[in-house]
Design brief:
metal-binding; binds dinuclear copper ion; 32% helix; transport; transmembrane; five-stranded mixed sheet
């Protein structure tokens, strides 16, 4: 999760988020290089007299500063294209989770397992335990197995919501009347926090998401316990 003074991206917990961070760093590096070059050129303009008796045209420099930016743009445009298709790829999911956005809470369905379903509300500040995170913890967490392909189906019951987990690189809108799909692979155990990110009404800020990533055998225990009850 994000903590104090974290201005960058959160540490990744999935291969796709790792790739997204790599692209972010790549694009930022190009941005810094361009900014330095343009900044230097603009600074040097102060010392330019704007007078040159023999300068009428410059075919070569015009060629260079037309083609070079086009090539640089290709280096920024092609990697995310690959990422875009990678993010959309569904690779034989072992678990499917359905999350439904409501004003203002999430509800979940494990359709593969006897249709386990439950609501997930934020814990209000006055009911928070000492080790809880304010505005971020929920009463019922989403338990998911680590090291497995997981498919998420997102929809909404009233207005548009967005199911967003930064550490997993997941951000899918829940739209009434539509079923959106995404997938991810959690590569470590832990708690991963997220929040709704479509402005969905008065309590938009208070419908967080908590994913509890656990080893597969622990997940099987959890799912059998819930199927029996
Ligand atoms: Cu749901 Cu914002």
């Amino acid at each position: 999760m994000s903590t104090w003074a974290n201005l960058g991206l959160q540490d990744s917990a999935s291969p796709l988020m790792e790739q997204l961070i790599f692209f972010h760093d790549h694009a930022l590096l190009i941005l810094v290089m361009i900014t330095i070059l343009v900044g230097y050129l603009m600074f040097m303009l102060f010392f330019n007299s704007y007078i040159n008796r023999f300068l009428l045209h410059g075919q070569l420099i015009e060629m260079i500063w037309t083609i070079l930016p086009a090539i640089i743009l290709l280096f920024i445009a092609l990697p995310p294209l690959r990422l875009l298709y990678l993010l959309d790829e569904i690779n034989e999911p072992s678990v499917t989770l359905k999350s439904i956005g409501h004003q203002w809470y999430w509800s979940y369905e494990y359709s593969d397992f006897n249709n386990i379903e439950f609501d997930s509300y934020m814990i209000p500040t006055n009911e928070l335990s000492n080790d809880g995170f304010r505005l971020l913890d929920v009463d019922n967490r989403v338990v998911l197995p680590m090291n497995s392909q997981i498919r998420i189906l997102v929809t909404a019951a009233d207005v548009i919501h967005s199911w967003t987990i930064p550490a997993l690189g997941v951000k899918v809108d829940g739209t009434p009347g539509r079923l959106n799909q995404t997938n991810f692979f959690i590569n470590r155990p832990g708690l991963f926090y997220g929040q709704c990110s479509e402005i969905c009404g008065a309590n938009h800020s208070f419908m967080p998401i908590v994913i509890e990533s656990v080893p597969v055998n622990y997940f099987i225990k959890w799912i059998t316990n819930n199927m029996n009850s």
